[in-house]
Amino acid sequence: MNATQGRIYIKPALILFGAMLLGAFSPPAFGQNPKLDIKNLEPLAKKASEVVDVNLDGALLKLASKFMTSEDDQEGLGIIKNLKGIYVKNFEFDKPGEYSQADVEAIRGQLQTPSWSRIVSAQSKHEGETTEIYLMTASDGGTVLGMAIINAEPKELTVVNIVGPIDIDKLSALEGKMGIPRLGEKVKESSKKPEDHHEKQK
Amino acid sequence: MRNRSKLLACAILLFVLLQFLPATAVAGDQEFHSLVDRVSAYYQKRPMRFMGLLGFVANRFTPPGVGHLQMAIFEGIPSFRTPPGEELESSLEGLVGPGYQPFVRVHDNRSGDLSVIYVRESGEKSFEMLIVSIDSTDAVLMKMQLNPDAMRDWMDEPVEKGKGSGHRGGSSAGK
User: Interface pTM (ipTM) of the complex?
Assistant: First the structure.
């Protein structure tokens, strides 16, 4: 075997070895990061009349937990103490039709990976409101690693990203708090198994 | 002569009242003054005068759970000092100093008003909120102390409360 032939055989082996190294040293959660890149929605900010960002990262959640001392707060406290972050992006528009579904694709596109499942898609034709709830589950299928809520109204768009383990049964304790919209019956009526996708009309 | 006596009486009364301000407020003042100085150096502008007095009066009318309100208003700031978007925010973070966590950010495209609300813990059961609100010509700094109930109101409705802050609704910030 001459030197050129040797290089030809060595090259694929090197590539394979490199790929194995990458696999070995990349974090296990790679591709399973429940934190969405909400910055992808920046182009929409130019169309909106008002943009509100809420960032409740680990340090602020810890701060929040300090004043959740009443009995009513105990369920909410149980959820947030394990969370790594709650991020809300709210766009308000002057008139309906100022944003399109294509604009929302910047976020939906990130939720198309196998680890994300849409558990609720509710539409109110009367009010023109759509709510989608997605869950990211661990490979064991049981632990919820994160959650995303897209709430689209004719003149308002809200994206909520909750990062960290969530007990879906207790989520109602956080509804209407920390920028999380009131989900009402949407969660309750949905399946508790994230694999089942439910579509319902209000 | 009577007017002068009235003015003197008011000044004495104000001086006496200021003596009863809690020590923590005075300590907070020093930090706020240093923040105002940093912003002042950045904009190369002095803040409006009598803000201390205005803050003292405003403190009488703050909503429950909100206190130690301090403010500074900078008028006629040079536009090149208010670059758009992220550049301005990173400048702000450098100015407000360590300890403060950015909590809510509101950008009003209609007026060009950007408000960033920072929070930090202050003692055992108290929180400090710093609101920086900037448009193309003015900048407003507001610092206040919130008790757990007032802070809880903010945590419950950060989007709505954030929309109420800033130039247009700054006075309602603590409500």
Answer: 0.71
Interface test with A, best of B127, B157, B159, B165 (most A CBs within 10 A): B159
Residue ranges of the domains in chain A?
1-27, 38-201
Report domain extents, chain B.
23-170
Which residue type does A2 have? N
Q: Which two tokens stand for residue B15?
A: 């001086």
Is B108 in CB contact (< 8 Å) with chain A?
A: yes
Q: Is B45 on the interface with A (CB under 8 A)?
A: no
What residues of B are in contact with residue A176 (Cβ under 8 Å)? 156
What CA–CA distance (Å, rounded) separates B153 from A1?
A: 77
* Residue A36 CB contacts under 8 Å (≥ 6 apart), including other chains: A87, A107, A110, A111, A148, A159, A161
Q: Are B116 and B102 in contact (CB under 8 A)?
A: yes
| pLDDT tens sequence for chain A (202 residues) | 455 555 555 565 555 555 444 444 444 444 578 999 887 788 888 889 999 999 998 888 888 777 777 777 777 777 888 899 999 999 999 999 899 888 888 899 999 998 899 998 888 888 888 899 999 988 877 789 999 999 999 999 999 999 999 887 777 777 777 778 776 655 554 444 444 443 443 3
Q: Which of A51, A64, A175, A172 is nearest to B155 (CA)?
A: A64
Q: Residues A121, A198: contact at Cβ < 8 Å?
A: yes
